[in-house]
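Aim 2 progress. For Sulfotransferase, the working sequence is reproduced below.
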Amino acid sequence: MASRDEKQANEEDKLIVSLPKERGWVSPYLYLFQGFWCPSTHIQGVFNFQKNFDAKDSDVIIASFPKSGTTWLKALTFAIVNHKRFPLENHPLLTSNPHQLVPFVELIFRGDIHELISHLSTMNKPRLFGTHIPFPSLPMSIKESNCKIVYIYRNPFDTFISSWSFFNNIRPKSLPTLTIEEAFEMYCKGIIGFGPSWDHMLGYWKESLATPNKILFLKYEDLREDTNFHVKRIAEFLGCPFTEEEESSGMVENIINLCSFEKMKNLEVNKFGIVGGSIEKKYLFRKAEIGDWVNYFSPSMVEKLSKIIENKLSGSGLSFKI
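Predicted structure tokens for this construct:
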């Protein structure tokens, strides 16, 4: 007689086969699952996360669309939340990649659920998790709890270039490289992991307006422009503000330096090895520049994506400078 886990796996396999699919960026296919495009390797993790995650009020969820500043925000948030726990000269971020310290739920929930739940119950508070899952597909326990969500979004033009470069670097050799024209057409149709990107942003944006005490909505460009201000803002939002003494001692600036792109990129721990099962850490740190897209976009690409964004975000209050 088939076990419960085997039955569930069979049901999920049947579901995946029934879903609409399109060519993938890293995997052969992306599947339209719960209204967003998802790699088959992540669907089981999303399912298990939705069914088995018991959110605590002290939990912190770092949410983002891929290639929107996720690695940086994970590092900053980990350092902020633990600023009284770890001395900067002997900090976990010096010896561990941010994605190891703040794991993606859609990845960790692909494994043994019973063992994972046991592990989660013994984690120090606050527990920090990352996710690319759109807001509507988060577990009800997160939506009904008082846990905090910090969401970061980025100009879709830069997000596209960063995604195209990153996914071509980590694509299996058995799959052909995506040309920028091919990738752009897919992106404009919303066909990218956890896309469409505009739906992803709007889901968290609208919820942040409804529950500003639960979701902090950050713009990558703003975080880059005034990191000091937003680091203190994140700390206040998460209930761990810096004291006047800590600020005067330079703790905020020290955290910013510890988590800077240059610092993280040059750490030995981020130059070698893999994270997330198969991703080489070195590919997580590309340029972190604002406006790099101008070096790749043709006038017709600019016009097309500008019209899509204007149409999708019209009336929402969200906008981007082109």
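DSSP finds 16 helices and nine strands in the chain. This observation will guide construct design in the next reporting period.
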